Amino acid sequence: MDLLRFITAGSVDDGKSTLIGRLLYDTDSIKVDQLETIQRQSKNKQEGEIDLALFTDGLRAEREQGITIDVAYKYFSTDKRKFIIADAPGHIQYTRNMVTGASNSDLIIILIDARQGVVEQTRRHSIIASLLQIPHVVVTINKMDMVDYSEAAYNSIVDEYSRMAQTLNMKDIRFIPVSALNGDNIVNSSPNTPWYTGQTLLDLLETIDVVRDLDFSESRFPVQYVIRPQSDDLHDYRGYAGKVLSGSYKKGDKIIVLPDHIESEIEAVEVHGIEVEEAFAPQSAVLRLKDDIDINRGDVIVTGSSAPIVSQEIEATLCWMDNKPLTAGGKYLLQVQSRRVRCIVKQINFKLDVNTLEKQEGIEKASLNDVVHVTIKTASPIVYDTYTSLRANGGAILIDETANTTVAGLMLS
């Protein structure tokens, strides 16, 4: 059974948490004791009704204010697929949380209030989805019950969003009219929208093809851990554990270990402790090599078909997530996959206006939620692909070493 990671995003009060709560409730994915707790905590509801948003608004402050502050992760499964849901905040000051949740998502659900149409935060979230190259976008036009399930209102929003999406070069976009509160077109098709003949939200999530999104042409295997049991029965065992980001690895493959460009050959491949002929993305595996060479955490094992970039000077687009501004000369830790190195931000090249996509040059600092293009110098080489060529190996984060916090998410170029 495969896994789909998706995130919900939208403006404040568009109903993101309610939609996820409805999805969990209607698929019987909520435990009895949790359901009883939420029933007791539901406020201002008619007798028998449940505040579905409470299933994802987990923080006390969120429940008291009726808003989502942090990204809430939920897990559920059906007979067809497993899911990890990230419910992102709608407030502009929490946009950084949305970026964090979207960075590993296969699909994004963008909610639009049928009464409000496309608003500024809709555009902002759509631009971020475009920058992060999330493969699939599902636009759920929510609160259709508040506009009497009007087909004209639905079509107007579809037309407006489609025009914007075309300028962002967004590829796979689906539209669904829903009422998260009433459950229309979430799990079951709604008789209130006879003019809509497409899939329900759950049916789309269960059937959308994410395997085709994987890149099997480039083989990338960042080493996360070197296994050396040094026991009597495994005295000479040396395995390299990690996740196959893209491509595949099989016994007999000629490989190169980067950044030191050491060549060897795969002697064995193990998955779940069992020796197999081949491991492929997105499996976790252990590779054993014929040669006894020095490999460390953060090194990348690749096949000879196409090599990634190995460099100490990197350009990247980043979303700044810290209250303290970013300025040229700032020193941080840069982490790409399992490799972490010290670095300095040499310069800020330009700022990207998230509403117009215009480049603003002459920028001296980046503030919270700003998207900027920077040049970074690292203390030692890192191995990466450009984000546009291989998303799985083109992302990174900046870390404030003193506070031990992530201050930026990066798309390498």
Structural description of this entry:
- With 413 residues, the chain is α+β, with helices and mostly antiparallel strands.
- The chain folds into three domains: 3-213, 3-Layer(aba) Sandwich (Rossmann fold); 220-303, Translation factors (Elongation Factor Tu (Ef-tu), domain 3, Beta Barrel); 309-412, Translation factors (Elongation Factor Tu (Ef-tu), domain 3, Beta Barrel).
- Helices cover 17% and strands 37% of the residues.
- It is built from seven helices and 24 strands.
- It has helices at 16-26, 32-41, 60-65, 95-102, 120-131, 151-167, 201-207, and strands at residues 3-10, 72-77, 82-87, 107-113, 136-142, 172-177, 220-227, 239-243, 248-250, 254-258, 262-271, 274-276, 278-280, 284-289, 300-303, 309-320, 326-327, 331-336, 339-352, 359-361, 365-366, 371-384, 395-400, 405-412.
- The strands form five sheets. The protein has a six-stranded mixed sheet, sandwiched between helices.
- Its EC number is 2.7.7.4.
Task: Describe how the helices and strands are arranged.
Blueprint: E1 3-10, H1 16-26, H2 32-41, H3 60-65, E2 72-77, E3 82-87, H4 95-102, E4 107-113, H5 120-131, E5 136-142, H6 151-167, E6 172-177, H7 201-207, E7 220-227, E8 239-243, E9 248-250, E10 254-258, E11 262-271, E12 274-276, E13 278-280, E14 284-289, E15 300-303, E16 309-320, E17 326-327, E18 331-336, E19 339-352, E20 359-361, E21 365-366, E22 371-384, E23 395-400, E24 405-412
Parallel strand pairs: 1-3, 1-4, 4-5, 5-6
Antiparallel strand pairs: 2-3, 7-8, 7-15, 8-14, 9-13, 10-11, 10-15, 11-12, 11-14, 16-22, 16-24, 17-21, 18-19, 18-23, 19-20, 19-22, 23-24
